[in-house]
Amino acid sequence: MDNAKTLSDSEIEEIPKLLLGYFNATNNLVSGITKYNSDFFMPFLTATFYFNNVEMSGVHKDSPLEQWIAYMKLLEFNLEILSRYHSGSVDALEDFIEKESKELSLAIYNTVFNRDGEKLTDFFQRQFDIIEGVTQDFPKAVKDIEPEYGFHFERGDQKPFAETERFLVYPVIPTDSKITIDKTAKPVLIIPPFVLGSNILGFLPKENRSYAHCFANQGIPTYIRIMKDINTTPAFQVMTMEEDAIDTRFFCQKIMEKHGKKVTLNGYCQGGYSALCNILSGELDSVVDALITCVAPMDGTRSKGLGNFLRALPTRFNNLLYGTKTLPNGNKVADGNLMGWVYKLKSIEHEAPLVSFFRDMFMVAQAEEKSVKLSKTALALNYWLKNERTDIPLAITAMSFASYNVPVKEDGTLPVTMFGKPLNFKTIEDKKIPWLLCYGENDDLVEKETALAPLDYIKVETTPFPKGHVAIATSWSHPESAYALHTRFGKDKQYRGPVRFQMDLDTPIVTSEKDKKS
Fold this sequence. Notes:
Elements: H1 9-57, H2 64-112, H3 120-144, E1 162-163, E2 167-171, E3 188-191, H4 211-216, E4 222-227, H5 234-237, H6 241-259, E5 263-268, H7 270-280, E6 288-294, H8 306-312, E7 324-326, E8 332-334, H9 336-346, H10 348-351, H11 353-369, H12 376-387, E9 392-393, H13 394-405, E10 413-418, E11 421-424, H14 426-430, E12 435-440, H15 448-451, E13 461-465, E14 488-489, E15 495-496, H16 498-506, H17 513-516
Helix pairs in contact: 1-3, 1-11, 2-3, 2-11, 3-11, 3-12, 6-7
């Protein structure tokens, strides 16, 4: 203990500053955790409101015994979620304590024995800065990324190419002014996901991270379909799947007239399943001759996440009524925020408020340790997660609901119909429509088993991408990434990105080793 030292005058003077920092940090910590909990539990209150309305409406005619059994199963279901919520939160807290306790012990040792390295005052100040960063600086940075994130057609800088009562279609302009669109090239119409919104496909255009701009930047005539505001558009509120197909045919007809070639329909996530159904219905035969889908749920019953979650839910409560929102005009729509919350519930051990809070703390801490700003990718992803949820028409929700509750039949028939006709995967082969099916190897929202279901019935060209559900639109949309969308990749260059697939539709598919390397 001979090396131990007493506090110097300057260190003593730091004590009031530390105490003030501790007080501020405690306030920030409490308010931050409260905010994370509030954001998570607000949809719970909404769900409770819908639940009470449905249960009081008398829509169910079950006997008292049947009701009792259903409620007991629901209690068991909720307790299982609560257990996972608790275990995930405890694990996150233990990870935090384990990491920081080592740093604290080292700081105490350095302080007591006057060793080089982080001292106690530095340790506590670092903790204060991290807490302030995650509760004050991080939310502001997420908010500030908004002007750079997404398409921003609402600014009025671009006029729509075509319009119906329910949708607008805009041309996607290259981010590089030196690039010109080849008007004679084969055009593509992108169908974004309904719940997740269109802006995830125009992620960070100025950073060359935008799925839609990947096509336009190769000179491809690229168009994207944008939903009108459901809150102010009654025609969209009550849209049917048939109307979705009719509007898509109208847009493709306009695009084909301009470019002289049939359109490639390109759907992402739920938009991919919708695009497929539209083609299978026969409504687009005269205007569409190719299909691209990315991370699209083709048979949700194969899902280990959301599919298992819905199967575990008592049958009485696995009903769209419990997620239905009544608008002021009386029209009913599916509550997008509640649907987003269900995605969190299925992975509650990873999405609990405390888990999310510590995850963000570690992200902020790593940025501060490296003395760098938080990446724009991380900020834009958080902006999307916090802000990009929209209500959707019940008919579209029913389409997805059927997909996750009723398996595709042995002959390839889907669990939905359009124009009074069944839909079957094999129709794609009958129509001789080339189809590129892209999926995420580690997608925990639309698992690859769910996306690859068509392969059990027909031959489809597939392209796997590393990472999860939005990586194709974020990580791999960068032209210099390892899986750039306009290139071929894989061990023998056997896989084509969706942009390369679209480009090859206009030119003969190369087979020589020299061409494969291009």
